[in-house]
Design goal:
rod-shaped; mainly alpha; 80 residues
Length: 80
């Protein structure tokens, strides 16, 4: 299967976007002072673990999607 240039760029951009968004989210989650992510003793709460899991899954999916886009662009460059 061949990906078009616009689709390949979109997938690559989506992968990068996913990393930018979720890295920012994890940084904010780690320094949360509202009491959602950490209890009074400083231990992580269920909110923290659920959102950390979401971030890790998004990192993996963003990486996979970005790599597919990058491979599509490389394949187009070889055939051009």
């Amino acid at each position: 299967m061949k990906l078009s240039r616009p689709v390949s760029w979109f997938l690559l951009a989506f992968g990068v976007w996913s990393w930018v968004i979720w890295v920012t989210f994890v940084k904010n989650l780690a320094k949360d002072g509202s009491g959602l992510a950490f209890d009074d003793a400083g231990d992580p709460t269920a909110y923290f673990w659920v959102h950390l899991t979401l971030a890790v899954v998004s990192f993996v999916l963003g990486t996979v999607v970005g790599v597919i886009g990058l491979r599509g662009l490389r394949a187009l460059r070889r055939t051009a």
